[in-house]
Amino acid sequence: SRHWLLKAPVGTPESAVLEAFLTQHYADLPAPHSVLISHPVDDIDWFAEGFSQRAGHRVELLCPQRGDRVRLVEQALRNAEIALAAHLGSEST
Length: 93
Fold this sequence. Notes:
By secondary structure, the protein is mainly alpha-helical. 52% of the residues lie in helices and 6% in strands. It has a two-stranded parallel sheet with strand order 1-2.
């Protein structure tokens, strides 16, 4: 699996970090039909419309509140924490 490391000042809202990631990640890749996100983002419709135009199909950004999709988002967050800890550990050696 591939990991991305985004640098942001301490205190940057999660939504701003997520927006930066989405913009960077889907700049050259077509988005899937559904993109699960961990935090609400400002102007979610703008992102969905832009992704839809580039992908050639309707793209939904979903911030799930319950069910299997919440568990997928929680797992992705755990994986990100593990990847960050590994990165920080390798920097200190």
